Amino acid sequence: MSLQQVDPPSRSGGGGMSKLAQLAQKRALQNNTTSNVDQSESNDESDITPVKPVSKLSALARARASKASNNSKSLETDGSNKSIAILDRLRSSTNTSAPPTMNSTPLASLLTSKREGLSIRSNLTKKVNPIRLSPPSPPPPKTQNIMVSDNVTTKEEDTSVQLTYDVSLDNSIISTNPVNSISSFLFKRKLSSSEHLETEDIEQDQINSKRRRQDQLFYPITNFEIQNLEKLEKVKQNFTQLSPDDKILQAQHNAFNDNFQNLKVTKPTSTGTTTPPKSASKSSKSLNIESELASNKTYAKPHKSFVVIGHVDAGKSTLMGRMLLDYGIVDAKTVDKLVKESMRVGKGSFALAWILDQTEEERSHGVTVDICATDFETSTTRFTAIDAPGHKDFVPQMIGGLSQADLGLLVVDSIQGEFESGFAMDGQTKEHTILAKNLGIEKLCIAINKLDKEDWSEDRFNHIKSELTEYLTSDEVQFTSDQLDFIPISGLTGNNVVKRDSTIASFSWYKGPTLGEYLETIKLSTNLDSKQLIDEEFFLTVSDSYKDKGELKVTGKVISGIIQSGDSIISLPSEVKLPIQSLYVANKKMDFAINGEVVQLTFKASQVSNDNVDPFRIGDLVAKADIVGGGSIKSLKKFTVSLHLFNMDKPLLVGMPFVLFRNNCQVPARITKLIEVTSAQGKKKKKNLLHLVSKQTAIVEVEIEGSSSLPLTKYTDNKTLGRIVIRREGATIGAGTVVDY
After folding, report:
1. Second-level CATH architecture of 530-627
2. Least reliable range by pLDDT among 131-145, 304-318, 509-523, 548-562
3. Which residue has the higher pLDDT, 607 or 510?
4. What is the pTM of this model?
5. How far, in Å, CA of 93 to CA of 110, rounded?
6. pLDDT tens digit string along 118-135?
7. Cis ω on the peptide bond leading into residue 573 (within 30° of 0)?
8. What angle do CA 665, 671, 676 make, to 5 degrees?
9. 302-521 has which CATH code?
10. Domain limits, CATH 2.40.30.10, in the chain
11. CATH class in words for 634-740
């Protein structure tokens, strides 16, 4: 390279010193002048006034001013020395390494010239002249732009490349430590898109550039060059075509358009085949119900479910415990244990009642709080016994027990005064019988209990029988005499419950059956043949629902029809459809369940799609999924009812809220419209009334409050699911049947 000296442009006022150094030098000179004047004045006045002592702060300020003056004098010398030291370091480093486009000899000449220039500037306080470098090699054939540091100059020449360096000394306070090295970076320009076809330029540019960017499609940040340009063209061509997802969507769109144009609506032709019954449903096992019922030993015995009702403290739980003990369902060892526990707390007579009353609350208060169902079997019959509470505060639970039974067992206390308090003085005996009749109980057996306390008096028995018969066959309850049966018993001693004690002379007047014999021999309309079971629609009322180990278990009574394992069911009103995984009857796994049985259905909890919705609630109806819409069941908000009212303390107004019961389901409701009112004699019809009074019968429109709905059928379609009962302020005020919706 050739070195050329270029005269720098002149700077005003400062020479080669920075502004900060000039300002510091000026302040130091002013401080020295002021200190000299003060010193002379103090010497002149020393003869007249005493010399004042110099404070530490003044001495410190003067010392700093003197130091600043000395630093300013040696500033130029030190700066030049530092610059010369830096250039010496650069010169020594060039002996080992040099830029690839320069020779070491021109660079050494450059560093020597720089050093001499710095020495001149330090002496004359002038900036060193810029040095231009001309490479000795022949110029490249094309224009190149090379940028250096911040003061980069871009020039376009055809024959040479000029590099201009501007080196100056940094005297600012930003750099705390001296820097003795200078870094220089050389970058070659990026080729334009038109120059990509020249292979030699591309290869030379790959060698000299640190990074390479492709301008065609994307910019890979890499030090390795993609040599094959055909791959880039192929990638670019692939991105212009449809993606695999776009091809699938296009094919679906074309297929839909083609099929939609060829779509035709034709009327189905009759093939002469008979359609399956509405209750038919695809199950996991193809069972012949008729042969199963005939061959299965379990179904060789009839099934009967009965509920024990009556006034509180009538002895219902004790009677149930005695029956389980005499039938051998509960062993004597368990009873002896309960006797000791009850005597320890002073309630020895409650030992048999504790067989069913197992909670601490029931045992401490001596009353049944919730229903308790027990399955047992005799030599001739399969039973489901339901013990219902008798206290007036637990009537809703008693209604749930009634909805699961086919037969009612009314227990009355025969002790003088106890019967009158439970029956004549607004006890629960009347309300329980009204509810039993209006909830579909077809047979009512009245067990006159504790007759041993009356010495098995026949007169007492006949008196109670006449009183109850007169009331139960009245217009308020409407039982018939052939639906009623009376049996004298003693639940505590067990006489005439399952066994009869023939040694009791005062009881020789009774010639009828024991309570156990009556329950085994009574015939109910629920005992249907196999053909009737298959033709019936399947309905189940839910009495309990819970999750256990990933399974959803639902317990309820089969109101009608038949259900198999694997059938798909729907819950109303939630309308959740699920396949049955398995079913159990009396804790035994079965393939199917029939009308009248209390069954437990199990489902997979993972199949419930929406966890926020409870698929099964107490009182919901379960039906087969393929009959909904074409069957008799409907989820209703409004429906028409033929309502009969009982004795009420105050009239029932239109819009007055009450609680409506259908089986074990209870919802808030109100009457929205009185269609017509019929008197008790059924002769006169009145319209345009706004209230109802006791013992009136009316056709009314009932609306369910809130966002819920109630699954119902017409009374003509299903006598169990078409009945309702209404209660207000803790008392039953009316009952009716659904006539339309």
Report:
1. Beta Barrel (2.40)
2. 131-145
3. 510
4. 0.59
5. 13
6. 444 444 444 444 444 444
7. yes
8. 120
9. 3.40.50.300
10. 530-627, 634-740
11. mainly beta
